[in-house]
């Protein structure tokens, strides 16, 4: 028993009406045949498997049909039956493969035989496939014959590279360029073939078959034939197509896209590890990821793209794409697609594709480190998402084109100098040089900063739509982000400060002491806090620090360190000596919004008497500061010990200062002299 023909041979078109996706070619050819205005030479060009040779055979059948001139062959005469699929072939229709018969001797032999009249049919037709393989000498030998052929002779050249055909030959032919078949049309064609073959196929598998075929009808049918041969009782399933064709499973793509949306680096690199461990090609994964990002970009611009067929995906996957696109901003998606596309280009020929894939993922995860226009716009997308979370400001449509561009203005820069103590000033009128938050003006804002300010105003006001309640709710995340940048800033925020107010773009922090305030500002920690706020909530605040003895710092949440995995020490930190509150709080201490003059380190009030218990507690605190590795006043010794264990932290360097000197310079503390008593 003979094996059945391949699928692309069994379903090869036999009329121009059966050729799909080439109406721009088949229509004019049918009109020329119907009116008997056929040229003596044709050139069919286009990608492989798009119907060039098949159309040449159909044209030959129509020319030699007993009912000619007709637009389509009748299929009943001897010539039509001989040239049909599975036919014996006609002696008057000669097919030549120029890849093996393209020399000058082959051309001379063809020229000698061409002058003989056809045996039975109306025309002697030469179909020269892969015509670009004919040598220049062979074309020159055919030139005179193609230019002035006998009346019974017709030429049909088929090629994938028409530019390689000799221009003198090409100028004497009618050129018809073929195209790749549109995916939607090819998908419908495959569904009809599967129904004719009696094989079930899942709708989710059809796009994979079409994609593997690349728009070529022959290649697509070959892929479908392979899947049909390996199909089980359930037919051609999506799982089978994914495994045999080597595509990335949708679950992995969904997982990595969700991780990008949540900025979850651990999940992203976990997916990369799965790709490598399961034996998949990192290049194919990157290509599939780029295609998914392309679909998300289209869905973000056209929300009903899956429904209208603009994206050829099943209904359930279309719903997933819509939900995923809603978690990104348009600029964020565009930036991610650009990074993946550039990385895919670098992967070609690379010896370490996994390393390049991980670098691509790292770039996508860090828009805050990208100072280009795309990086700025990606951060603005985060700001818009944050505004939609708190329920104020527009959630969509707030783009740089719609936002008014404000005039550039100066931005305060951190001043890495510890402010010197000055003579005491009245609390109601602080000295001009000691006003908290005042710094020299910097040059005008850059265009990127101006764009940020413009979009901030368009999204939800100067503060990005955040209220004081929202800031306090998000404060733990912001403080935790400062820990990744500078540990000292995190220690100040968790031990010595509290959020007091948010007015416009100014965030006011209250510190328990002037020394803590001066150390925070002088060390540039306010700039660290500003950058952390941009990364976490998308708000660019000006941080103003004031002294507020009544501030109650929010301690950092207790977590297990990922480096060692050991649980936190359950032993409570030693309590600092209680401060004796002043008999009457000044006006500036009661008003949380008023600027406050820093407290002078020199004593301004007469010495007060202390009871024996307070003196004993003070003595213990002083002795603790004089021992190696002693903690700063009011700070957790376990945290200082942890900081000392990291010598790469530049902020943990004490420059060899003793405990007392470190307290005085860093926190502005006063050393209580021991009072003799009986």
TrEMBL record:
Pro residues: compositionally biased ranges: 565-575
Gene3D superfamilies per record: 1.10.8.60, 1.20.272.10, P-loop containing nucleotide triphosphate hydrolases
Residue span(s) of domain AAA+ ATPase: 38-182
Species: uncultured Nocardioides sp
Subunit structure comment from the entry: DNA polymerase III contains a core (composed of alpha, epsilon and theta chains) that associates with a tau subunit. This core dimerizes to form the POLIII' complex. PolIII' associates with the gamma complex (composed of gamma, delta, delta', psi and chi chains) and with the beta chain to form the complete DNA polymerase III complex.
Biological process terms in GO annotation: DNA-templated DNA replication
Catalytic activity from the UniProt record: DNA(n) + a 2'-deoxyribonucleoside 5'-triphosphate = DNA(n+1) + diphosphate
Bias (Basic and acidic residues): 635-649
SMART domains per record: AAA
Domain of life: Bacteria
Keywords recorded for this protein, A-Z: ATP-binding, DNA replication, DNA-directed DNA polymerase, Metal-binding, Nucleotide-binding, Nucleotidyltransferase, Transferase, Zinc
Record-level Gene Ontology MF annotations: ATP binding; DNA binding; DNA-directed DNA polymerase activity; metal ion binding
Residue numbers spanned by region Disordered: 388-445, 548-614, 626-659
Similarity remark: Belongs to the DnaX/STICHEL family.
Enzyme class: transferase
E.C. number(s) listed in UniProt: 2.7.7.7
Keyword Nucleotidyltransferase belongs to the record: yes
InterPro entries from the UniProt entry: AAA+_ATPase, DNA_pol3_clamp-load_cplx_C, DNA_pol_III_gamma-3, DNA_pol_III_sug/sutau_N, DNA_Rep/Repair_Clamp_Loader, HLD_clamp_pol_III_gamma_tau, P-loop_NTPase
GO cellular component, one term: DNA polymerase III complex
Function: DNA polymerase III is a complex, multichain enzyme responsible for most of the replicative synthesis in bacteria. This DNA polymerase also exhibits 3' to 5' exonuclease activity.
Bias-annotated ranges (Low complexity): 391-404, 594-607
Listed name of the protein: DNA polymerase III subunit gamma/tau
């Amino acid at each position: 028993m003979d094996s059945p023909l391949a699928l692309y041979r069994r379903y090869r078109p036999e009329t121009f009406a059966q050729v799909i996706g080439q109406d721009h070619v088949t229509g004019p050819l049918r009109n020329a045949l119907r009116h008997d205005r056929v040229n003596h030479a044709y050139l069919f060009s286009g990608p492989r498997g798009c119907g060039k040779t098949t159309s040449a055979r159909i044209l030959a059948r129509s020319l030699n049909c007993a009912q000619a001139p007709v637009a389509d062959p009748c299929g009943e005469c001897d010539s039509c039956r001989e040239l049909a699929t599975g036919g014996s072939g006609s002696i008057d229709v000669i097919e030549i493969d120029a890849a093996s018969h393209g020399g000058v001797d082959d051309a001379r032999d063809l020229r000698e035989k061409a002058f003989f009249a056809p045996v039975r049919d109306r025309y002697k037709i030469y179909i020269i496939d892969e015509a670009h393989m004919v040598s220049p000498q062979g074309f020159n030998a055919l030139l005179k014959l193609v230019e002035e052929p006998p009346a019974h002779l017709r030429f049909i050249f088929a090629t994938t590279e028409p530019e390689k055909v000799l221009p003198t030959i090409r100028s004497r032919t009618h050129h018809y360029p073929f195209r790749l078949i549109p995916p939607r049309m090819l998908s419908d064609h495959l569904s009809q073939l599967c129904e004719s073959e009696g094989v079930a196929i899942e709708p989710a598998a059809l796009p994979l078959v079409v994609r593997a075929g690349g728009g070529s009808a022959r290649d697509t049918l070959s892929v479908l034939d392979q899947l049909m041969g390996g199909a089980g009782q359930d037919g051609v399933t999506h799982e089978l197509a994914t495994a045999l064709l080597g595509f990335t499973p949708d679950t992995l793509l969904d997982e990595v896209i969700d991780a990008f949306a949540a900025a979850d680096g651990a999940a992203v690199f976990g997916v990369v590890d799965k790709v490598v461990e399961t034996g998949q090609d990192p290049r194919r994964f990157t290509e599939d990821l780029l295609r998914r990002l392309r679909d998300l970009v289209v869905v973000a611009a056209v929300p009903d793209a899956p429904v209208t067929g603009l994206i050829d995906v099943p209904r359930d996957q279309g719903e997933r794409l819509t939900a995923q696109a809603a978690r990104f901003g348009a600029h964020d998606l565009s930036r991610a697609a650009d990074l993946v596309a550039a990385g895919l280009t670098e992967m070609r020929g690379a010896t370490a594709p996994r390393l390049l894939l991980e670098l691509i993922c790292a770039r996508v995860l860090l828009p805050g480190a990208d100072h280009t226009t795309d990086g700025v716009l990606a951060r603005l997308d985060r700001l818009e998402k944050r505004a939609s979370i708190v329920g104020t400001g527009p959630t969509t449509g707030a783009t740089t084109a719609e936002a008014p561009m404000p005039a550039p203005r100066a931005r305060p820069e951190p001043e890495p100098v510890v402010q010197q103590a000055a003579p005491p000033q009245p609390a109601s009128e602080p000295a001009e040089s000691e006003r908290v938050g005042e710094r020299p003006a910097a040059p005008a804002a850059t265009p990127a900063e101006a764009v940020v300010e413009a979009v901030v105003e368009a999204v939800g006001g100067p503060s990005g739509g955040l209220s004081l309640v929202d800031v306090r709710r998000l404060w733990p995340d912001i403080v935790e982000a400062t820990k990744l940048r500078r540990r000292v800033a995190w220690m100040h925020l968790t031990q010595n400060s509290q959020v007091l107010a948010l007015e416009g773009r100014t965030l006011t922090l209250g510190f328990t002491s002037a020394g803590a305030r001066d150390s925070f500002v002088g060390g540039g920690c306010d700039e660290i806090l500003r950058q952390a706020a941009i990364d976490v909530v998308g708000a660019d605040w000006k941080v103003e620090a004031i002294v507020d003895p009544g501030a109650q710092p929010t301690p950092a949440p207790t977590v297990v360190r990922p480096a060692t995995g050991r649980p936190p020490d359950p032993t409570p930190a030693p309590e600092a000596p209680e401060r004796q509150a002043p008999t009457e709080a000044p006006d500036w201490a009661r008003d949380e919004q008023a600027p406050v003059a820093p407290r002078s380190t020199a004593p301004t009030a007469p010495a007060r008497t202390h009871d024996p218990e307070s003196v004993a507690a003070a003595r213990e605190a002083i002795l603790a500061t004089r021992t190696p590795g002693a903690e700063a006043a009011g700070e957790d010794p376990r945290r200082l010990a942890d900081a000392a264990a990291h010598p790469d932290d530049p902020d943990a360097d004490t420059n060899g200062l003793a405990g007392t000197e470190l307290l005085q310079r860093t926190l502005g503390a006063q050393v209580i002299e021991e009072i003799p008593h009986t």
